[in-house]
Design a protein that fits this description.
The C terminus is likely disordered. By secondary structure, the chain is an alpha+beta fold. Helix 2 packs antiparallel against helix 3. The strands form six sheets. The chain has a six-stranded antiparallel beta sheet, with helices on one face. It has a four-stranded antiparallel beta sheet with strand order 2-17-22-21, with no helix packed on it. The protein has a four-stranded antiparallel beta sheet with strand order 4-11-9-6, with no helix packed on it.
Amino acid sequence: MAPKYLAMCATAALLASAACGKKDEKKNAPPPPTAVSVVTARTTDAVYYDQYPATVVALKTVELRSQVTGFVTALLFKEGDVVPAGKALYEIDKRQYEAAYQQALANLRSAQASAQNAQVNQSRYQRLLQQDAVARQLAENAVTNASTASAQVASAQAAVAIARTNLGFATIRAPFTGRIGISQVRLGAQVAAGTTLLNILSSEDPIAVDFAVNEKDIQRFIALQNKKGAVGDSTLRFVLPGGQAYDQPGTIQTIDRGVDAQTGTITVRVQFANPKRQLKDGLSGVLKVLNTQSGNRLVIPNKAIVEQMGENFVYVAQGDSAKQRKVQLGPRLRDDIVILSGIKDGDKVVTEGVQKLRDGGKIQVSQPGAPVAAPAGPTAGGPGK
């Protein structure tokens, strides 16, 4: 029994040794290549914009208030309409102002008559004085009376002007062409001079859009302001609240006088034509400014980017391995992204399978858009099972 037992032990030892050898061989074998897809980095015409929250503002806005006290006797407009400059909008009860004007005219006529009589007396006394037919004091009094009467005429004329102005104030007119809002007072309401708000009038065409920019960008916008825009210029565009692009180009009208010390920003005003009255005062939207780096730029799919510790990388296929490259990103263009530095035109950039890669790792390249093949290995039911 002993020889057989020894033989069996030897056979088992040999089998165990063979199994261990296979395990060591598998352990030391290199990992299979990672299946990936690649695309070629290309230089293309990349047009992109910087975006700023913006607000539509009327270039002219006025709060309509009465300059005289009284009751509203007429509303002479339709709310929400565009009214021309000079159009009568409201009338305040003008009877007392009409009466005051007529009284001022009567006072003026009386003063003019007195002045005329004083002038005649002055002339008469001057002739009598030359003939020594009257005392000098009487002649001098006539001169004084004529001067006083002339001053009273001037005073009466000023009173007429004031009364005429107050009468004119009883009719409130549009100071410029614009759209009038909903009236804040109704027929018969009492208004106080300089206090009661009647309505708001604002211009619409042209109209402006205000937005804030960082103080570091002031020189950029000064240059844009000095640039002569051509027809169809797309440097400045406005996007409506629903996401629709406004179809008119803009030009920089004004850069505010100073920087806000609290926010470090400055307000820039862009003017737009508004023939269809699409833009309304107070509307919010987005102002898009053409980026100065727009042009021929290197572009790759956005999914090729790998972020690690706040830095961005891509994998570039070189032969049968992938090399990691640090890149500087530009703006995103839908599914693509601009690469400012780190790779060059023609590089084969890995777009699928990047999560499994490491720098210098072996790769197996599939056609772009094709399903990524599984790495080669034991099949089900084979020896590896």
